[in-house]
Specification:
Number of domains of chain A: 2
Oligomer: heterodimer
Number of strands of chain B: 8
Order of helices and strands of chain B: HHHHEHEHHHEHEHHHHEHEHHEHHEH
Largest interface: A-B, 17 and 23 residues
Mean pLDDT of chain A: 91
CATH class of the largest domain in chain A: Alpha Beta
Radius of gyration of chain A: 19 Å
Largest sheet of chain A: 5 strands, mixed
Strand content of chain A: 15-25%
Largest sheet of chain B: 4 strands, parallel
Distance between the termini of chain B: 75 Å
Chain lengths: 262, 444
């Protein structure tokens, strides 16, 4: 019997459905919008239809994410930190450090081989270490966020900004524009700043290889390139990194309701 | 001449109309009455089978009863001496037959008013205490005839100056190194000056006899204070936030009455320990708090979250100047001569202090040792390192403490917050993830 995980993210709701062997049957994603509960219901229905099953077929649903209280269908809940650890080890069995960079929050989770959390840290009270930073900077640079990554790859690394906070970052970007620094150089500086921020978080908990990068921002090639330039470790980026939370929740559902992963 | 006049003028006072002061005071007072009522209610709900004597502490949690008593004592000619920091030796205040009360502000709203004088980057306890003073909000601060402030961190140092616009302020300056040749003698002379100030204000001479009586009174409180902490070493017979409240009330209550009530509580808890009558399940993850002071009522934000979380945690110990450190160490007297007592008093308020204002080649070792001892003896399973923005010394000492605790294989979580209720959701996520991790570790 299948199991489901719902990740009630700040920007998107994500659903993953697993069969009782732990194989992924379906994924679905949609914007959280102003009515996250409705969005969750709809995303869940979509995932069910992608998997070709009915609601009654699902044995257990686990919710995670910032808005987990709004996932009405959930049988249990799990923190995003625990979900990251479970998903990280599932996607890369040797993973001991999971870096999750999301829309508003970033997490570094150190775990053991069974996906138990050993240590973690989050970007505290500040959006400078998350996707929101990139969005604000893309706006200042007047490029589409989807294009900023590609753009940054052309740069040599002649500019830099400080990423102590979104507001100061924006000021830095504006002054670089005034200095007529090319856009691609500024774009790279933006990714470098975010990567540095994340790396300082990694060092606060202590890096343990292997490293897996998940969360929506992991899809941004500008960011992954910056992180690879700066972090002295190999970084594995899975397909569909934005589903890590939902996957971790689904794995929790599976473990909780008695299924087995071989 | 001009210079002389200018230093007599107020240095920091802001222009604010009497009408605005009253409006702010009334609205904030109403808001914090609600916070106190709500938090007490939640504590009661969280510990349904609590001993009856807890009701006394819940009553004292509302400042108004003690405020009335202080007003009454003043009308009978007694002096109230406020202090901002646990470096102030309460024995000296008691020996002069005055009443000690701690006045650092644990209310969130006044911090915004404090911003009119102090920039937002500064620690919110300072901003809130300043804000409370501007609008005459804090009952104990208002009743104080004089203030003792310790020059520990930058915030406390400048707070002294700001407060001196309103009241007589006596600063005491702890040396930042404990064990140089001059440290103790310098500190002792600071306390002698303080003694003279107290005597002048109260008109009461502090004699060997009155000092001894005061030390012995505080000894009785020390014993009960320790007993309550020791009871938390074993199975959870008292919720952490309730124990923290009892501890904190010692900072404004009549010390004799507090000792008597806390003793009753301890007797009851000892019984409960024998009967295995617990406040929460014995396998609840055991948490210790360390870092910036957690001051009633608003800062109960974190203790509430920990003990109401899913999974639930229990606070079994802390290393807070607003908590377990307050009356833990007694004045260790050898000979009851004035000179010896005074040296012992100076030692007591310097040597055991784990305040991050101290440093040495080995770092702030006393703090590390306190934490290690607590972890071992109180069987602590996880440490939350609580910081509010602007609390530099505690923030900077984090990595040092984390390394020490890593060696004991105890996870530490750095929780960064501010004097605001807006981040409750965010903190809840973090606390629950941490407790979930502790729970999983216990189960492994």
């Amino acid at each position: 019997m299948p199991f489901a995980g719902i990740d009630m993210g700040i920007q998107n709701v994500k659903v993953v459905i697993l069969d009782d062997d732990g194989k992924i049957l379906a994924r679905s994603i949609s914007p959280s919008g102003f009515e996250p509960a409705k969005a969750a219901e709809q995303t869940f229905r979509e995932a069910l239809s992608n998997a070709g099953i009915r609601r009654d077929d699902i044995k257990h649903v686990t919710a995670t994410g910032a808005g987990l209280d709004m996932a009405l269908e959930a049988d249990s809940t799990i923190s995003m930190v625990a979900a990251d650890a479970k998903a990280g080890v599932y996607l890369l069995p040797s993973a001991r450090t999971v870096i999750d960079v999301g829309a508003e929050e970033s997490r570094i989770v150190v775990c053991d081989e069974r996906g138990n959390v050993l240590d973690f840290t989050l970007n505290e009270r500040c959006a400078a270490g998350s996707g929101a930073f990139l969005e604000a900077m893309a706006r200042a640079l007047e490029v589409r966020i989807e294009e900023m990554g590609e753009l940054s790859l052309k740069a040599k690394g002649t500019a830099s900004i400080s990423a102590t906070c979104v507001i100061f970052g924006e000021t830095d970007v504006v002054s670089l524009i005034h200095r007529q620094e090319p856009k691609h150089e500024i774009a790279r500086a933006i990714y470098d700043a975010l990567a540095e921020r994340i790396i300082s978080m990694v060092h606060r908990v202590g890096l343990k290889p292997s490293v897996i990068l998940v969360g929506g921002v992991a899809k941004d090639i500008g960011f992954t390139a910056a992180l690879r330039r700066k972090l002295e470790a190999e970084i594995f980026v899975p397909n569909y990194p934005e589903y890590a939370g939902a996957l971790g929740a689904a794995l929790h559902a599976l473990a909780k309701a008695g299924g087995n992963i071989q | 001449m001009d210079f002389k006049r200018s230093i007599k003028e107020k240095k920091y006072v802001v222009e604010i109309s009497q009408r605005e002061v009253e409006e702010l005071r009334n609205s904030i007072r109403a808001a914090y009455d609600k916070v106190i009522a709500d938090y007490v209610e939640r504590m009661k709900r969280g510990w349904a089978g609590r001993p009856k004597v807890m009701d006394y502490f819940y009553e004292m949690a509302d400042f108004s009863r003690r405020e009335k008593e202080l007003i009454e004592a003043k009308s009978e000619g007694k002096k109230i001496i406020g202090y901002t920091c646990v470096f102030a030796p309460v024995e000296l205040i008691l020996a002069a037959d005055a009443i000690p009360v701690r006045v650092s502000c644990g209310l969130y709203e006044p911090a915004k008013i404090g911003n009119r004088i102090v920039p937002v980057e500064v620690c919110p306890v300072i901003r809130s205490t300043v804000g409370a003073k501007i609008i005459g909000l804090s009952p104990f601060l208002e009743q104080s005839d004089a203030l003792i402030t310790a020059l520990t961190c930058d915030g406390m140092t400048k707070l002294s100056e700001i407060m001196s616009d309103y009241k007589p302020v006596w600063t005491i300056c702890p040396p930042r190194l404990k064990d140089t040749e001059q440290s103790l003698s310098f500190w002792r002379s600071e306390l002698l000056t303080l003694k003279a100030n107290i005597e002048k204000l109260t008109g009461t001479k502090i004699t060997g006899k009155s000092l001894r009586r005061a030390i012995e009174r505080v000894h009785r409180a020390n014993r009960v204070f320790r007993k309550l902490q020791n009871l938390r070493k074993e199975k959870p017979v008292i919720m952490g936030r309730d124990a923290m409240l009892v501890t904190q009330i010692a900072m404004w209550d009549d010390l004799e009455r507090w000792t008597e009530k806390a003793e009753l509580l301890c007797i009851e808890l000892e019984e409960r320990l024998k009967e295995n009558n617990l406040a929460c399940p014995p396998d609840t993850p055991r948490v210790m708090l360390t870092g910036s002071p957690i001051i009633w009522p608003d800062n109960w934000k974190l203790p509430n979250l920990i003990e109401e979380a899913k999974p639930q945690g229990i606070i079994v110990a802390d290393e807070l100047c607003s908590g377990d450190r307050f009356l833990y160490d007694p004045v260790g007297v050898d000979e009851w001569t004035f000179e010896d007592m005074f040296t012992a008093l100076a030692e007591r308020y310097l040597m055991p202090s784990t305040c991050p204002c101290f440093t040495s080649e080995a770092g702030n070792e006393d703090r590390v040792n306190w934490l290690i001892n607590r972890v071992k003896e109180w069987r602590v399973e996880g440490v939350i390192y609580y910081i509010y923005r602007g609390c530099m010394l505690y923030a900077m000492e984090y990595m040092r403490i984390k390394h020490a605790l890593d060696h004991l294989n105890v996870p530490t979580y750095y929780l960064d917050t501010d004097y605001t209720r807006e981040d409750v959701g965010q903190i809840k996520t973090r606390v629950e993830a941490f407790l979930e991790m502790l729970k999983a570790r216990i189960e492994i």
